[in-house]
Amino acid sequence: FDYPCLYFPQVTNAQEQFQLTDEQKAELKEAFALYAKTTTGRIPVRDLGELLRCLGWNPSEQDLEEARHELELTASGSLSLTEVEDYIRRRGALYYGNSAEEDLMAAFQVLDNHGSGRIAVSSFRRFLTTMGEKMTHDEAEELIASSTLSGQDYIECRDLVQAVKDLPK
User: Fold this and answer.
1) Model-level pTM?
2) Cβ(92)–Cβ(55) under 8 Å?
3) pLDDT in tens, 107-148
4) Helix (H) / strand (E) containing 154
5) CB distance 8 to 96 below 8 Å
């Protein structure tokens, strides 16, 4: 199962910068727009971790602190799309190579705004059909149906992981 996500190859030479494809740039812009304040076109620094997780990275709190320091935050505590894109070019995919289950858990955490282990079906459906490698409506509905009990308007993380494990290879 490949959930919608960007993957960036690891950049090994510190002087080398990873070049994003047009598709990766478009997906970054789309993900960035989910967090951007409409009036400023910037994201609050507190959303940097969620944005990076949405792109397939799994940064620790220490990684995020280093990123904030590296990005030399503006006085307003916000980041522009250009600043985030430049950061991604410099850092490459430091978190490339996670297992499918780790990737799924990271994606789930992006949508689990309250840390409850649950996400709204509507948010999950939108994520599956609009971000990264987009699923068709039918594919998304099949995964949702296998992850929820009849009538539930939320998905539990453990149920989603089990449903993905049960998918035919």
Assistant:
1) 0.48
2) no
3) 777 788 787 888 989 988 888 888 766 788 998 898 888 888
4) strand 154-156
5) yes
Asked if 92 contacts 40 with a C-beta cutoff of 8 angstroms, the reply is no
Question: Under DSSP, is residue 5 helix (H, G, I), strand (E, B) or coil?
Answer: coil
**E strands, 22-125, in order:** 42-44, 78-80, 118-120
- In whole angstroms, give the CA distance from residue 107 to residue 157: 10
Q: Which two tokens stand for residue 90?
A: 């410099």
Instruction: For residue 101, give every residue at least 6 positions away whose Cβ sits within 8 Å of its Cβ, in sequence order, or none.
Output: 161, 164, 165
* Cross-strand partners of 44: 78
Tokens of 118: 């649950």
Task: Print burial letters for 33-51: b (CB count within 10 Å at least 16), e (below 16).
Answer: ebbbeeeeebbebebbbbb
